[in-house]
From TrEMBL:
PANTHER family with a match to the protein in the record: GLUTATHIONE S-TRANSFERASE FAMILY PROTEIN, GLUTATHIONE S-TRANSFERASE-RELATED
Residues annotated as domain GST C-terminal: 87-215
Gene: gst
Annotated protein name in UniProt: Glutathione S-transferase
SUPFAM superfamilies: GST C-terminal domain-like, Thioredoxin-like
Lineage, highest ranks first: Bacteria, Pseudomonadati, Pseudomonadota, Betaproteobacteria, Burkholderiales
Keywords: Transferase
The enzyme's E.C. designation: 2.5.1.18
UniProt-listed InterPro entries: Glutathione-S-Trfase_C-like, Glutathione-S-Trfase_C_sf, Glutathione_S-Trfase, Glutathione_S-Trfase_N, GST_C, Thioredoxin-like_sf
Annotated PROSITE patterns: GST_CTER, GST_NTER
First-level EC class: transferase
GO molecular function: glutathione transferase activity
Amino acid sequence: MDYRLYYSPGAASMAVHWMLIEMGIPFDVQLVDIDAGNQRNPDYLQLNPAGRVPTLVVDGAPRHESTALLMLLAERHPEAALAPVPGSADRAAWLELMIYLANTLLPAMRDWFYADVDGDPAGAAGVQALARRRIEEACDQLDAGLADGRDYLIGGKLSTADFLAVVIMRWTRNMPRPALGWPHLARYIRGLRALPSFIELNAREGLTEWRNQDD
Ligand SMILES: N[C@@H](CCC(=O)N[C@@H](CS)C(=O)NCC(=O)O)C(=O)O
């Protein structure tokens, strides 16, 4: 199996990058500097016509959407056991959470960061206000789910949901209410950030913010 991840440090690609590192399988990476606008280079648009990261080239075919990529990798690498298998007790909760993160939280994050680019700048403040409400509601919901002291979101073990949730939580760090302000979420995040794969991920992406030693 052959993988090449097109990524930008700290972007949605980070969840996929984390999973690839955690699985310990061979893969290549290619930096797409979105601050420099390189996601709109013609060569990259051939791979990803929307001009977004991530793209994961899987056995020569470019594939998109971070959530779908996490689910695809879990399916292609059952030995890594990073998703409950079909028919198992935790499968429904996993599907529900993956879709919730993709369908509710990721679009709200997009709106928070890109309101003035994706839409009319004159309406950006209103879009951001609604996005912030949705993001904080999601933090409430995740925090409530973690109140029983669990270390992982689903099934008592690390799964794709944790990669995605923690990377999204990282994006709240400069928002008015960062995720670390929710008590159960904070304990959970610190546990996940202690994983060797997360530490390695930050090193490989050159990220020096939002690590356990930083707060
Ligand atoms: N739903 C997509 C969202 C991808 C996305 O919006 N990526 C951002 C970075 S986190 C991006 O490519 N931004 C550059 C741009 O839109 O120009 C996914 O989850 O993969």
